[in-house]
Amino acid sequence: MIQEHILGTITDLSETGELTIKAGAPDIDRAVLRQYRTCEIILDDGRKISPQQRRKVYALLGEIDEYVNGIRTAEGVEEQKRLLKLEFMLKRMSKTERQLFSLADTDVTTAREFITFVIDFIVANDIPTRIPLLEQCEDIGRYVYACLVNKRCCICGKPCDLHHVTGSKIGMGGNREQVHHLGRACLPLCRAHHDEAHQDEAGLMSRYHLEPVKIDAKICKIYKLKK
Fold it and tell me: Using an 8 Å Cβ cutoff, are 63 and 44 in contact?
C-alpha cells in the first residue's frame, strides 16, 4: 500500500474526546485522484527523551555488549544499539513511526518503550547486569511480566517460584493443581525473596516498589497451572 507521511496540527479537542486536525495535502491533484478517506494518526508526545532515559539505554546496551563480546566498548555499544533498534522498529513500531525513531531526539514515550524492549531482551537471554533491572525499568508491571514469562526473580534475576500475593493466595490445604489460577495476582520471586515475602509481603513490595501482575493464559501454560 502506498503511504504518504504528512504533519498536521490539532485545532480542537471536544468533550467527547474527538480531535479536529488540520493538515495540508502535499499534492492536491494526487489527493483528489486517490480520494483519501482514512488516515493513521500518530500523536507526537511533545516531550523529548530525558538525559536519564538516555543514560539508561546506554547502560543497558553496555551490559549486552559486555556479555556478548566479553568487553564493553563504544563501537560494541553502537553495534548493539543498531541491532536492537532495528529489531524494535520491526516488532514494536508501525511503518510510519520507524522513520522518526532516533535516540538523539525521540519522544519520552518511544524512549520508554525502547527501554522496556531492551530489558525484555536482557531478561529473555538471562544476561547478567551490574545494576538491578528493577532500578532501570520504566514500566514495572511489564518488567514483572517479562520475569514471569522467563521464570526469573524480578528482584535479583535468579530462577524463581511463583508467589501469590495477599488476596490471591491459595487457602490452607488447597491443591494447587486443582485450584483455578487465572486472574490471581502474583510475583516471580527466588526462594530467598519468596521466603521474605511470606514474612513481610507488604514490606518487600514497598521496599522494591513491586507491582504484582495477574496470571493470564500464557502464564498458566508456562507454569502448568489450571486456568
Answer: no
Compute the average pLDDT of residues 63-88: 96
Starting at the edge strand found earlier in the chain, the sheet holding 213-214 runs 161-164, 185-189, 213-214
What letter represents residue 79's amino acid?
Answer: E
Determine the Cα–Cα distance for residues 227 and 95; give it in Å rounded to an integer. Answer: 37
Q: Are residues 181 and 115 in the same domain?
A: no
Residue pLDDT, tens place only, 181-209: 899 999 999 999 999 999 999 999 999 99
26 pLDDT higher than 90: no
Is 46 within the bounds of a domain? no
152 in a structural domain: no
pTM: 0.76
Query: H-type helices in 17-73, by residue range?
Result: 28-34, 51-69
Q: Last residue of some domain: 77, 103, 136?
A: 136
H/E stretch holding 13 reads: strand 8-13
User: Residue 75: which domain range?
Assistant: 51-136
Whether residue 168 sits in one domain with residue 210: yes
pLDDT in tens, 42-66: 776 668 899 999 999 999 999 999 9
Q: Tell me the sheet residues that pair with 12.
A: 20
Q: Within this chain, do residues 128 and 170 fall inside the same structural domain, yes or no?
A: no
Element (H, E) at 127: none
